[in-house]
Hints:
By secondary structure, the chain is mainly α. The protein has a domain at about 55-125: Helix Hairpins. The chain is built from four helices and no strands. The chain is flat, with a radius of gyration of 39 Å.
Amino acid sequence: xxxxxxxxxxxxxxxxxxxxxxxxxxxxxxxxxxxxxxxxxxxxxxxxxxxxxxxxxxxxxxxxxxxxxxxxxxxxxxxxxxxxxxxxxxxxxxxxxxxxxxxxxxxxxxxxxxxxxxxxxxxxxxxxxxxxxxxxxxxxxxxxxxxxxxxx
Length: 152
């Protein structure tokens, strides 16, 4: 009769690795997992403005570079189109001119978006609402209205 080893769930989890641990001359422990506390970002309004300014300057610089390269490419393709007199060269020149015009439109759109964002930041400040409230009876209100209308 052969003996069978019956494992139970209550048995230590490392017991099945005891033979491996002895062969490798190491010991192991089960370390409970600890969850780190989530980091909550604190939004600093000055850093948001600085990031906005940095992004604006970066995008603006890229658009300027694209427009300048586009102008150089337009000059080159127009020379090529005039020399070769091929319709395809003129078509490419037309498309390039359209792309440069689109880049200049994007530059103007960028200016407008920055202006809108700055206006939003300014308008988020406190606003004053003045409401006139009459406290009294309806008879007092009628007298007041009658006096105001007769003064005019």
